[in-house]
Write a structure and sequence with these properties.
This protein has 147 residues and is mainly alpha-helical. The protein has 6 helices and 4 strands; from the N terminus they run αβααβαββαα. A two-stranded parallel sheet has the order 1-2. Strands 3-4 form a two-stranded antiparallel sheet. It is globular. The termini are far apart.
C-alpha cells in the first residue's frame, strides 16, 4: 500500500499570482475579476474566477468581484458582512433587486492598484506587479477551498 504524502500540493503559479493581488487590495476596496487579469497581464475574468473558487477561501475573496457589483451568489450574506465591516461603498437595493440585497458601488469601491488604503500591507503598487513570491510558498490543504 502506498503511503499518502503529508506534504500539501503547491499552488499553480497563476493561482499564486491571483491570490497575491487579492491580498494587496485594501479593506473597503474591490477589483473585478477582469481587473485582476488585466493587472497580471495574463488570463481573463473566468480564469481569475476559477482560481478564486478553487483556492480563494483563505484570501480576502470578497474583494475580487463581478464587474456589475452583484454580490457573489451563494455567499451574499458572508460578503455583505465583510463589506459592512470594512465600510466598502454599497448601493441600496432597488425594489426589483433579487433578495433585496445591495450591490457594490463600483464607481467608489473599485481599486486601480494605486493609492493604498489603511491597513494594507507595506510596499507600493509596483510591488503588486511582481510575480514571484518570496519566502514560504502557499500550499493547498485542509478542506476544499470553495468560496
Amino acid at each position: 500500500m502506498d503511503r499518502v504524502s503529508d506534504e500539501l500540493p503547491e499552488l499553480p503559479e497563476y493561482a499564486e499570482r491571483v491570490l497575491d493581488v487579492a491580498e494587496q487590495i485594501p479593506p473597503g476596496r474591490v477589483m473585478t475579476y477582469g481587473d485582476v487579469a488585466e493587472w497580471l497581464g495574463e488570463g481573463g475574468p473566468r480564469q481569475v474566477g476559477r482560481v478564486m473558487a478553487l483556492y480563494g477561501a483563505a484570501a480576502p475573496w470578497w474583494r475580487v468581484v463581478r464587474a456589475d457589483g452583484a454580490l457573489l451568489p451563494g455567499h451574499e450574506l458572508r460578503a455583505l458582512g465583510h463589506y459592512r465591516e470594512e465600510s466598502t461603498p454599497l448601493r441600496g437595493a432597488g425594489r426589483a433587486a433579487e433578495g433585496h440585497l445591495p450591490r457594490l458601488d463600483m464607481r467608489r469601491a473599485r481599486w486601480d492598484g494605486g493609492e493604498r488604503g489603511p491597513g494594507s500591507r507595506s510596499g507600493d503598487a509596483e510591488d503588486m506587479a511582481g510575480t514571484a513570491r518570496t519566502g514560504a510558498e502557499r500550499e493547498v490543504g485542509g478542506e476544499a477551498a470553495h468560496i
